């Protein structure tokens, strides 16, 4: 399978503070890679660098074989992002927001694309609603629609189901699984929901203090660390680095 | 540059304005109040001072010109701040938009916002005070253009600060125009300023614009040098602001401001 994300030894320093200390990883086509780690471990910084919002101090990032530093616009056309910490303009209707972002991403058949996403994400009846008046679950699905409006090859998800009730959370996870399978996209998923990661991710990276401290398939990590589930592995790794190094 | 993307970002703000009657009212309300107030002050001075007695509407005309500058600058800043307040900033900067496309779209939107406020205010001056700003003739266009460029320049400078320092720079956004107003010699000749302030005023385009507006209205002559000087200083500050915006964008990418904006 083709590598859609290639990260080669990227570092990010803020003055004397090393936020990310030279990490490397790949995400292939039709793969979901989980990015796990406690708060402050460097996950958001890593995602920020992949989105071109942060400049790495050193190292290289390639998306679909294009170097990010030299092809920012071309790469941003094939990538998208969803996070509960960013929102769409609250005063616009859902349809207006999707239309605006379709224009920003130069989507060709805007009407058809919005109809397709509305059906898939069950937001058809919300299209004329004011975005700021939607429930968390509805906003989440609308944000996901915005993130898919450009048919991205690479999707970056930062806690995509945080604050969602179990039913909506399950709907989003199922949708992501099916969409990834259908479109053969790469997904990088940063999440604190270990059940979600176990269900969706083929492999995971564990980060702590800006470093990758372990990686592998969720089931292999569980076996390797002799724990019952990924959450226990996460707790073990976050609490003590020396135990496994 | 992609016109589609420029239009897309314009639409985002167009929808915002047209969806909300209070927003349109807010755009129209303040310029109209400002012009009405200065209209009465202008009438008073026109009849009680020798300087203005042959030129009814000098103050009012300058008030309209200043308001246009103020609205353009604040309008540009507002567009940028809207993205921060709505926590949409990251979405905008991960969209495949070039800096030039973002700036072009905001420049066009800021003009439309200013005109929404200004046109009703100008229309008010004729029935209320019997004055037409069109008395400035063809040079009115150049004066407005000059003010528009400077307003946009200030907007870009403040937006650069917002990019570099984040939302904490917001207070500066509101105060820029008030800081520059005394040096702009909007309602008085430059000789009124102390010598040291005059030196500062002469390196700003504002003094040339307002001196020329008064010159046309009071002396009924045109000093093309003032118009030229205003454009030269405008060009200098405009290119400086663009360079600073690019610098701030890169600095924000190094510092991480873009990713934390709005939090």
Structure at a glance:
The complex is a heterodimer of chains A (245) and B (263). By secondary structure, chain A is α/β, with parallel strands linked by helices. Chain A is built from 9 helices and 10 strands.
What is the top-level CATH class of the largest domain in chain A? Alpha Beta
Instruction: State the CATH architecture of the largest domain in chain A.
Output: 3-Layer(aba) Sandwich
Total individual domains of chain A: 2
Helix content of chain A: 25-40%
In angstroms, what separates the terminal alpha carbons of chain A?
Answer: 30 Å
Structural account:
The complex is a heterodimer of chains A (245) and B (263). Chain A has 245 residues and is an alpha/beta fold. Chain A folds into 2 domains: 1-78 and 153-174 and 184-245, P-loop containing nucleotide triphosphate hydrolases (Rossmann fold), CATH 3.40.50; 91-151, no CATH class. Chain A has helices spanning 43-50, 72-76, 94-104, 110-120, 136-148, 166-183, 194-200, 218-224, 230-239, and strands spanning 3-14, 17-28, 31-36, 58-63, 66-67, 79-82, 154-158, 186-190, 203-208, 211-216. In chain A, the strands form 2 sheets. Chain A has a 6-stranded mixed beta sheet, sandwiched between helices. Chain A has a 4-stranded antiparallel beta sheet with strand order 2-1-4-5. The longest helix of chain A has 18 residues, at 166-183. Chain A starts with a strand and ends in a 6-residue tail after the last helix. By secondary structure, chain B is mainly α. Helix content of chain B is 80%, strand content 0%. Chain B has helices at residues 3-19, 21-48, 58-85, 89-94, 99-129, 139-165, 170-184, 195-201, 205-219, 224-255, 257-260. Chain B is globular and about 60 Å long. Chain A binds chain B through residues 14, 44-45, 48, 51-55, 72-74, 76-77, 79-81, 83, 85-93, 96, 99-106, 146, and chain B through 2, 4-5, 7-9, 11-12, 15-16, 19-20, 82, 86-98, 250, 253-256, 258-259, 262-263.
């Amino acid at each position: 399978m083709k590598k859609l994300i290639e990260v080669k030894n990227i570092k990010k320093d803020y003055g004397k503070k090393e936020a990310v200390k030279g990490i490397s990883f790949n995400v292939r086509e039709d793969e979901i890679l989980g990015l796990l780690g406690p708060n402050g471990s460097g996950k958001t910084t890593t995602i920020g660098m992949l989105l071109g919002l942060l400049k790495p101090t050193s190292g290289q990032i390639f998306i679909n074989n294009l170097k990010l530093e030299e092809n920012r616009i071309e790469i941003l056309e094939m990538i998208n992002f969803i996070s509960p910490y960013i929102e769409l303009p609250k005063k616009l209707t859902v349809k207006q927001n999707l239309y605006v972002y379709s224009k920003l991403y130069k989507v060709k058949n805007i009407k058809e694309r919005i109809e397709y996403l509305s059906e898939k994400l069950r937001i058809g009846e919300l299209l004329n609603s004011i975005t700021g008046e939607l429930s968390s679950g509805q906003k989440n699905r609308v944000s996901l629609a915005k993130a898919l409006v450009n048919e991205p090859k690479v999707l970056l998800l930062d806690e995509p189901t945080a604050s969602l009730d179990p039913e909506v959370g399950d709907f989003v996870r199922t949708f992501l699984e099916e969409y990834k399978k259908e479109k053969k996209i790469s997904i990088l998923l940063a999440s604190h929901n270990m059940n979600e990661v176990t269900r969706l991710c083929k492999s995971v990276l564990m980060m702590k203090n800006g470093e990758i401290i372990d990686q592998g398939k969720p089931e292999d990590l569980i076996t390797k660390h002799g724990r019952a589930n990924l959450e226990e592995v996460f707790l073990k790794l976050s609490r003590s680095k020396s135990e496994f190094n | 540059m992609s016109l589609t993307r420029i239009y897309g970002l314009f639409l985002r703000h167009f929808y915002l304005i047209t969806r909300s009657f209070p927003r349109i009212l807010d755009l129209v309300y303040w310029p109209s109040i400002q012009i009405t107030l200065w209209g009465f002050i202008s009438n008073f001075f026109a009849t009680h001072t020798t300087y203005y007695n042959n030129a009814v509407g000098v103050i009012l005309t300058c008030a309209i010109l200043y308001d246009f500058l103020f609205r353009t600058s604040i309008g540009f800043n507002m567009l940028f701040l809207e993205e921060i307040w709505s926590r949409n900033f990251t979405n905008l900067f991960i969209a495949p938009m070039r800096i030039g496309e973002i700036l072009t779209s905001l420049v066009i939107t800021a003009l439309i916002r200013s005109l929404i406020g200004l046109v009703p205010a100008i229309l008010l001056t004729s029935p209320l005070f019997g004055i037409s700003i069109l008395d400035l003739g063809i040079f009115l266009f150049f004066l407005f253009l000059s003010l528009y460029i400077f307003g946009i320049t200030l907007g870009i400078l403040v937006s650069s600060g917002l990019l570099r320092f984040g939302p904490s720079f917001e207070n500066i956004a509101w105060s820029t125009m008030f800081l520059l107003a005394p040096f702009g010699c909007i309602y008085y000749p430059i000789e009124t300023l102390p010598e040291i302030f005059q030196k500062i005023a002469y390196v700003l385009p504002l003094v040339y614009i307002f001196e020329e507006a008064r010159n046309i209205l009071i002396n009924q002559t045109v000093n093309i040098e003032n118009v030229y000087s205003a454009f030269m200083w405008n060009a200098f500050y405009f290119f400086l602001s663009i360079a600073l915006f690019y610098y701030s964008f890169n600095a924000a990418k190094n510092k991480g401001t873009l990713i934390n904006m709005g939090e």
